[in-house]
Amino acid sequence: VAVVQYSDTAQTNFNLNRYGTKHDVLQAINSLTHKGGQPINIGSALQYVRDHAFTPEAGSRIRQGAPQILILLSGGRSADDVRNSVRELKEMGVTIVAIGSSDADTLELQTISHEPRYALSVADYGELPAVKQNLGKNRTQFMFFPAEKTVLTTNWYSKKRLTSTKRDIVFLIDGSDDVRSQFISIRKFIANLVQNLDLDQQRDQIAVVQYSNNAKMEFSLDAYSTKGDVLQHVARLQPKGGRPQYIGAALQFVKDNVFVPKAGARINEGASQVLFVLAGGRSRDSPRGPARALKRGGVVIFAIGSRLSSSAEMQAISDHAFSIPDFVNLTGIQQHVLRHLTAIESPKTLNKQAQNK
Predict the structure, then answer these.
(1) Pairing of strands 68-74, 94-100
(2) For the VWFA domain, which residue ranges apply (predicted)?
(3) By Cβ atoms counted within 10 A, which residue in 79, 103, 112, 123 is the most buried?
(4) Is the predicted pLDDT of residue 185 greater than 60, yes or no?
(5) Helix (H, G, I), strand (E, B) or coil at 73
(6) Contact 109, 307 (CB under 8 A)
(7) What secondary structure does DSSP assign to 12-31, as a single string?
(8) What is the pTM of this model?
């Protein structure tokens, strides 16, 4: 472990090879003092880390294939350009997790991070324990790769993998007054994902539910059996309106009325159960209980939140959390979403794995 502080300049508190025990590292951390200074120059700080921290002289084991991981904490927008430094770090195999407070720039965090799901936002640093929990416990959400394997192409998934298992996929979309102007982007996102799925061979089934102050079923999993019919209905979707957003009640509605055999759910046949939650604002009720119940029932949850949503809330309810400035930015995460969709295993496979342990 190494620690570097930055503001207008960067300074090393201790290098990767400075301490050999957890006790010594914790003592050093407890002795840290605030360096001060302004403005915030993240670009030059990242360059400093590249030149002075991720080097064999400073203890980096990159040549031995050790994963190189950088966790950046940002309290504001950078006064300098971060792009060149970020590119150089990624090219040398560093996986970057960017965590920003409410004063940080969301787009900047996503530019810096390994991919959008590695960009996390907190209202203030008092919420960091919740982020720490997600970083530590969920290896499917945050995967750190050996240096020589960090470069990923955006279209690596294959059609064969995408159609190798049955999936019941439900879109729970914010249809409130707050997202009315961005609703076309939500429709387009659903349509683009549907285009990559296999509905005509009945491997994939789609359902859409809108929510605001209440939930409304647009169509159930067994409503359509062809891609063309689904796309036609998606193209006709209009925002239901209303406010505020009750995500908890909407999740409960989906559990009780959508992921059930009478509405077409095929969990008894071993189909993967997948839920996409698109949130344009904070929930007025708690979504955590219904989300836990869905996960216990075998549902894998993707949560995509705009800047008005709560990042901590999205991370708490999901297996895969994405943060975007606005829904017009949905196209930027589509390939990442598809990549994770291909990796989802059926409940039967997971049960076999559990029995073999």
Answers:
(1) parallel
(2) 1-135, 168-341
(3) 112
(4) yes
(5) strand
(6) no
(7) EEE-TTS-SSHHHHHHHHHT
(8) 0.58
User: For position 130, what pLDDT does the model report?
Assistant: 66
Q: What are 111's two structure tokens?
A: 């530019």
Mean pLDDT over all residues of the chain?
85
Are the beta carbons of 116 and 324 closer than 8 angstroms? Answer: yes
Is residue 103 within 8 A of residue 125, CB to CB? The reply is no
Contacts of 323 by beta carbon, 8 Å cutoff, 6+ apart: 106, 110, 116, 119, 120, 121, 304, 305, 307, 309, 311, 314
- Interior/surface letters 3-38, b for 16+ CB within 10 angstroms, e for the rest: bbbbbeebeeebbbebbeeeeebeeeeeeeeeeeee
Would residue 279 be called left, alpha or beta, if left means φ above 0 and alpha means ψ between -120 and 50 degrees? beta
Look at 86-100, 145-159, 282-296 and tell me which has the smallest mean pLDDT.
145-159
Radius of gyration of the chain (CA): 22
> In sequence order, which residues have a C-beta less than 8 Å from that of residue 100 and are 6 or more positions away?
73, 74, 75, 106, 108, 109, 119, 120, 121, 122
Residue 239: cis peptide before it, omega within 30 degrees of 0: no
Confidence of residue 159 (pLDDT cuts 50, 70, 90): very low
Q: What is the pLDDT of residues 253-297, one digit of tens each?
A: 999 999 999 999 999 999 999 999 999 999 999 999 999 999 999
The CA distance from 20 to 238, in Å, is 59
The token pair at 280 is 């344009």
The length of the chain is 357
